[in-house]
Amino acid sequence: MMDLEVWTSRTGKTVMQCRDLGLHKFELTxxxxxxxxxLRDVLKILKDxxxxxxxxxxxxxxxxxxxxxxxxxxxSYSQDHKYLLAICAAVCLAxxxxxxxxxxxxxxxxxxxxxxxxxxxKLSYFKNAGWEDEWVDTAEALVCxxxx
Length: 148
Prior knowledge:
Shape: elongated
Number of strands: 0
Strand content: under 5%
Radius of gyration: 21 Å
Mean pLDDT: 86
Order of helices and strands: HHHHHHH
Distance between the termini: 56 Å
Number of helices: 7
């Protein structure tokens, strides 16, 4: 299968060279191609998460780890100097949006209970992910209170 970037640039350039179509004014500059390529790279983590939740059998216990993974990736992208300033700014906005949704998991005890009860996670996930001790204690207390 041909690489998407190669196909897009070949096809795009071929179409743009056909001046009789009147599309030449829409031809992308080299800088715009660079932005599109970097944007594609950055958005891959969101595509992968969407496909994971769409095609597998996700559970509540997978939501927080996936959000943590996305947050880690977005953080690394926002600090990587190989990306243009516009891409870094967009990544920061995406991170802000992700954190707004992440905070909503705090309003529902179900996510934390599911994480603690999941055989692969237990409390070790929270500790390994660097959660504050107070948050880990709260997650443990939620489970204890729920199943007393």
